[in-house]
Amino acid sequence: MTVVIVGAGIGGLVTALRLHHEGLDCEVYEQSEQIRELGVGLNALPNAVKELAVLGLLDWLEELGVRTSELFYTHRLGHEILRRPCGMQAGFSYPQLSIHRGQLQGVLLRAVRERLGPDAVRTGHRLVGFEQDARGVRADFVGRRGEALDPAHGAVLAAADGIHSTVRSLLFPEEGPPCWNGVMMWRGATDWPEFGTGRAPTAPVKPSWTPPASAATWRDMPTLPTRCRPTSTIACRPPARWCSATAMAARKA
Ligand SMILES: Cc1cc2nc3c(=O)[nH]c(=O)nc-3n(C[C@H](O)[C@H](O)[C@H](O)COP(=O)(O)OP(=O)(O)OC[C@H]3O[C@@H](n4cnc5c(N)ncnc54)[C@H](O)[C@@H]3O)c2cc1C
Questions:
Q1: Is the separation of the CB atoms in 5 and 28 below 8 Å?
Q2: What is the value of pTM for the model shown?
Q3: Cα 200 off chain centre by
Q4: Domains in the chain, number
Q5: Which of 141, 171, 201 is the last residue of a domain?
Q6: Is residue 30 lining ligand 1, measured as CB closer than 6 Å?
Q7: Is any atom of ligand 1 closer than 6 Å to the C-beta of 38?
Q8: Tell me, what's the pLDDT at 244?
Q9: Domain of residue 64, CATH code
Q10: What are the tens digits of pLDDT across the range 90-138?
Q11: pLDDT exceeding 70 applies to what percent of the chain?
C-alpha cells in the first residue's frame, strides 16, 4: 500500500517518517523546486517531542534546539507578568524544544531522504486535482510552468499542503480562503550571549527578524532589544486573498 503525501512541510515530512516507521510505503510531493530552511523559532511541546523521539530524532534536534525549562512574559519595560515551568521541569517525560523552524524541517528532510530514499520527496510537483475510486486515488500535478506531470497513484492521499490547502479547497469548494483574525504575531532569532537560564543551542542560530507590517522600520519596535540586529526583514502583512476579521464576522452571521 502506498500513501501519496502532498506537501513537504513539517506535517508532510513527519507523516512520511511515521508511516515508514510503521512499515508503510509513501511518496511525498512538494510544489517548491527546492526545499529551503525558512522561518524562525517555534516551540515543539512535549507531546510533539515524544513523537519525534519515537522516530529516533531527539539527539539531532537537541543539538539544534534548546531544552526550554521555563516561559515568562514581561511587559515592554521588562516587568514580569507570568512565569511557568515547561517540558520536563513541568513534570512531562519529554522536553519542550525551542528550535528554528527551518532547521527542524531540515532534520526531517534529511531523515526522510536517508530512510525512504533520495527520491522520496519529489519537488516541483504542485497538486492540482485528485480522483478517488474503489481501487485507490490518483493525484494530478503540474510543474513550475504549469506543464502536466505524471500522476501519482496510491491507496491513500494525505493532504499536508498547509493553510492554503488545495486538497481542502477541492473537498470544500464553498468554504473560501482562511479568515485572518486580525492578530499579528512577530518573532525573531539572534545570537545572544546569555539570557534567562542561559541555555543556548550548540549550533549557531540563523539571525532573522519579522517586524509587524505597521512598523516603518525595525527601530519602531519599542520592545526590540538594542543588541538584536536583524540581518533580514520580511513584511508580514496578511495576504490580500485572506479575508478580514469583518468578513469573518459577516460569514459567521
Ligand atoms: C515558509 C514557512 C515558514 C514558517 N515559519 C514558522 C516559524 O518561524 N514559526 C512557527 O511557529 N511556524 C512557522 N511556520 C508555520 C508552521 O511551520 C506551520 O504552522 C506548521 O508547521 C504547519 O505545517 P504543515 O506541514 O501543515 O504546513 P506547511 O509548513 O505550510 O507546509 C505545507 C507544504 O505544502 C506545500 N504545498 C502547498 N500546496 C501544495 C500543492 N498544491 N502541491 C504540493 N505542495 C504544496 C508547501 O509548499 C509547503 O511546503 C512557517 C511555515 C512556512 C511555510
A1: yes
A2: 0.80
A3: 21
A4: 2
A5: 171
A6: yes
A7: yes
A8: 54
A9: 3.50.50.60
A10: 999 999 999 988 999 999 999 999 999 999 999 999 999 999 999 999 9
A11: 74
Both 33 and 100 in a single domain? yes
Check pocket membership of 170 for ligand 1, CB cut-off 6 A: no
150 and 191: one domain?
A: no
Which whole number is the average pLDDT over 187-204? 65
> Domain check: are 94 and 215 in the same one?
no
159 and 190 both lie in a single domain: no
> CA-CA distance, 196 to 89, in Å (whole number)?
15
pLDDT of residue 246: 54
DSSP 226-239: TT---S-B---PPP
- Cα of 105 from ligand 1 centre, angstroms: 10
Q: Kindly give the distance from the C-alpha atom of residue 77 to the centroid of ligand 1, in angstroms, as a whole number.
A: 34
Q: Could you tell me if 247 and 186 lie in one domain?
A: yes
Cβ of 31 closer than 6 Å to ligand 1, yes or no, is: yes
What is the residue range of 195's domain? 179-253
Which residue owns the Cα nearest ligand 1 atom 27?
162
Say whether pLDDT at 15 is over 70: yes
Q: Which of 145, 171, 197 is the last residue of a domain?
A: 171
Strand spans (E) along the chain: 2-6, 25-29, 41-44, 66-68, 70-74, 80-85, 96-100, 121-122, 126-133, 136-142, 148-154, 156-159, 188-189, 208-209
Expressed in angstroms and rounded, the spacing between residue 81 Cα and the centre of ligand 1 is 32
Is residue 7 within 6 Å of ligand 1 at its C-beta? yes
Question: Which residue has the CA at smallest separation from atom 4 of ligand 1?
Answer: 39
CB 106 near ligand 1, within 6 Å = no
Ligand 1 lined by 10 (C-beta under 6 Å) = yes
